Amino acid sequence: MFGQMKRNVVHFDLDTFFVSVARLGNSALKDKPVIIGGHSDRGVVASCSYEARRFGVHSAMPMKLARRLCPSAVYLQGDMDSYSHHSRVVTDIIRSEVPVVEKASIDEFYLDLTGMDRFFGCSSYTAELKKKILRESGLPISYALASNKLVSKVATEDAKPNGQMEIPFGHEKGYLAPLAIERMPGVGLKTSALLKRMGVETIKLLSEIPEPMMRNLLGKSGIALSRKANGRDDSPVVPYTEQKSIGKEETFDNDTINMAFLGGELVRLTERVAFLLRKQQRLCGCITVKLRYANFDTVSRQAIVPYTANDNVLLAKAKELFAKLYDRRMLVRLIGVKVSHLVGGYQQISLFGDTEENVRLYQAMDTIRKKHGSHAVMRAVGKLERR
């Protein structure tokens, strides 16, 4: 590794985040098995405490099965408003201390401390930051310090709960070697099954497969997987910024005052934006609606929302913003919808009240859109003929 720049990358992950937030508001939940998700038996588990995991409960499990495995657990409805608030609290603490931060999801962060060891010592600096997060937010958090994002993320799982690890520079491959291939990010069920049929069950064995063979086996992703198995990952820590956004807008052929049509366009645009969020595996924390009147005056309003990619949540807020915006009774020439404050995450984490059927409905609709385009399936109101 002579000549290779020594990077210092930290992966922070809030422990059982939803459960920890619930315990902040109710200390009686401490040390008890806690399961968060939809109340009905057809709902799914969004999060569960370590105490519940000992009974075999895990995220995305049907609630009916979770109740059977752990009937003594405390079952709670999710509260995305609260989770979003506490996520922002932790984000602000980290950003006040570290110049380069990537908010990977609602509850995990990458920090690039490269070069800071000359002044502070990355190990002690990160340990102090962990203490500060716990002290100021009340939330337990685990981390791993390594030379790249891949190793730091994998090692954080070994640091949990409420722990810390450091993988010394040059020891990345050795650390990964004995781990099961399922621990490697990017190895899903199909890839895992394929590799196991070849007798590859550990990352060490995966690292010994020549790159050309991996390319033949899995294409470009095989090359990337081979490099990861050898502990190599050059992906940068992408600075988090509230300015990242996804938006869609429509300028009409003819200015209109038809409220049914404008409402339909608002629904159509919001659905498209929500689909793009889910396609990119992101959640948003802010939505903006824009109007341009016939005289070219342009107005907009935005609102903070619980982190979500749920059509229903975004549509309700978009309609509320539109009602506040449209106050002139003038012809409208353009309408737009934009979401921002983006973080990584999946739509399902905001569907605490949804049944398995509703979750599958969203997934089925998105599958159709990915194959045939975002207009392939939408609410009927969004299909109103343009005027």
TrEMBL record:
Annotated positions binding Mg(2+): D13, D107
Co-factor(s): Mg(2+)
Site keyed Substrate discrimination: positions: F18
Lineage: superkingdom: Bacteria
Keyword tRNA processing: no
UmuC domain location: 9-188
Matches recorded under InterPro entries: DNA/RNA_pol_sf (IPR043502), DNA_pol_Y-fam_lit_finger_sf (IPR036775), DNA_pol_Y-fam_little_finger (IPR017961), DNA_polymerase-Y (IPR050116), DNApol_IV (IPR022880), Rev_trsase/Diguanyl_cyclase (IPR043128), UmuC (IPR001126)
Active site feature: E108
Function: Poorly processive, error-prone DNA polymerase involved in untargeted mutagenesis. Copies undamaged DNA at stalled replication forks, which arise in vivo from mismatched or misaligned primer ends. These misaligned primers can be extended by PolIV. Exhibits no 3'-5' exonuclease (proofreading) activity. May be involved in translesional synthesis, in conjunction with the beta clamp from PolIII.
HAMAP family attached to this UniProt entry: DNApol_IV
UniProt-recorded name of the protein: DNA polymerase IV
Annotated source species: Echinicola rosea
Lineage start: Bacteria, Pseudomonadati, Bacteroidota, Cytophagia, Cytophagales
Gene that encodes the chain: dinP
